[in-house]
Amino acid sequence: MMRSSGAGSPREIKLREKPSSGQWFLWENYLLSDIREPKPADLWG
User: Fold this and answer.
1) Residue 22 CA: distances (Å) to CA of 14, 16, 17, 32, 35
2) Which one of 4, 11, 41, 42 is most buried, counting C-beta atoms within 10 A?
């Protein structure tokens, strides 16, 4: 889980390690889910 100042809750990410090099890569992310309008533009806020 990753925290972001632009999100209301932590976001899930999945990493995958390449065994031959020991490098880690972003495999899946849910960082752009539930994007909301900025507060000044949100008429319901």
Assistant:
1) 16, 10, 6, 28, 33
2) 11
Q: In the chain, what are the domain boundaries? A: 1-33
Average pLDDT (15-19) is: 93
Which pair of tokens denotes residue 20? 């031959």
pTM over 0.90: no
How many angstroms separate the CA atoms of 27 and 24, rounded?
9
What residues pair up with 23 in beta bridges, in sequence order?
18
The answer to whether residues 11 and 33 touch, using CB atoms and an 8 Å cutoff, is yes
